[in-house]
Write a structure and sequence with these properties.
With 122 residues, the chain is an alpha+beta fold. The protein has one domain (9-115). 41% of the residues lie in helices and 33% in strands. The chain has one helix and four strands. Strands 1-2-3-4 form a four-stranded antiparallel beta sheet. It holds the Pfam family N_methyl. InterPro entries: N_methyl_site (IPR012902), Pilin-like (IPR045584). It comes from Pseudomonas prosekii.
């Protein structure tokens, strides 16, 4: 009896076709993952710049009005307004911050409370 072991040519071609299909799916998945990671990094950059600008505003007297500038290649614009409320020992300020880096933009808002005698100009 003649028993041969091995794969036929058809079985090898089928295995290679399945391998090629799986490889192409993985390459597309890795490409999409890399693209998503780049988008997250750009968004994180805007968030970090915004956080730094708001922290900087917390350390100084607030002035009602608009200010703008550029920080690490990110353009920013901040509007500070005095919130209406009862006159008392504290003032509430609204900070609206717009940051942009090319086509990517983000807006952030926060409230800060300051004592009336803290030296904030109106």
């Amino acid at each position: 009896m003649n028993s041969q072991r091995g794969f036929t040519l058809l079985e090898m071609l089928a295995a290679l076709a399945v391998l090629a299909l799986c490889s192409s799916v993985l390459v597309v998945a890795f490409g999409n993952g890399a693209r998503a990671l780049q988008q997250v990094q750009r968004s994180d950059r805007l968030s970090l710049v915004a956080r730094s600008l708001i922290d900087d505003a917390s350390d100084r007297a607030l002035q009602v009005g608009r200010s703008d500038g550029e920080w690490s290649g990110v353009h920013w614009q901040m509007d500070v307004s005095l919130m209406p409320g009862a006159a008392g020992t504290a003032n509430a300020y609204r900070l609206d911050l717009h940051v942009s880096d090319g086509a990517r933009q983000a807006r952030y808002s926060t409230l800060q409370v300051r004592s009336a005698g803290s030296g904030a100009a109106r």
